[in-house]
Amino acid sequence: MISSDVIRGYNDTIILYLLLDHPSYGYEISKKIKEMSDEKYIIKETTLYSAFNRLQKNGYVESFYQEQSHGKRRTYYRITESGVNYYYEKCQEWEVTKEVINQFIKEVNFK
Amino acid sequence: MISSDVIRGYNDTIILYLLLDHPSYGYEISKKIKEMSDEKYIIKETTLYSAFNRLQKNGYVESFYQEQSHGKRRTYYRITESGVNYYYEKCQEWEVTKEVINQFIKEVNFK
DNA sequence: TGTCGTACTTCATCTGTCGTAGTAATTTAA
DNA sequence: TTAAATTACTACGACAGATGAAGTACGACA
Question: Which segments of the protein form a coiled coil according to its record (chains A, B) (predicted)?
């Protein structure tokens, strides 16, 4: 598993990535994260929904409701232009961060 | 610069790395981090010393005093066996974390 | 004499994560 | 047919780690 302190700075980025192509909603995003990380990272519901609120407050996503077949509604999120910019900034930051942390890591190869 | 939320999970690891060879103390460690990261990461004093406390509480380092020339004392930290083990665990975790986050990052190459 | 560098400590605040719990509808299994 | 699991959230409170602000104290240098 992955320590949440590491992922902390990248939850927002991960979510934005999954919104790049098309709007999505909480449950779908969480399943996608689990799947794409090969079950190595499973985001907590509370973490996810509080991230949505933060992203919205910062103007990186917009929300809208979509009624399902039988009157059930889902909250969908759509990435904004500013969200896309923020995402790409974070990607660049990530490359730098990786290099920095790598300086202090010894690669051990054993299973 | 680097966001502190990313580094959050690795401050302890970075410090332990710098103690692997020989004991050291706060100021030296902070200069080393700055230098090795090419000024891209400058650890805050409060972050550093609270990390020392945590590391000591967890048994990953031991502290001792060393008197300087004129009665000034420095607090030195020495990594323990358990600290070494923890460090290598974190190194392995880092490899996994890198892979996971990379799944959600688009590499953009522009300057 | 005053500022800079070294070497810390204390305290209070903030942010993001997480545990617990609850709601409510739909789908699947016994 | 009924119970359990899955879907799709919301609210609340606790906690850990990072940080800002401030202070202490010594030596070197100008």
Answer: none
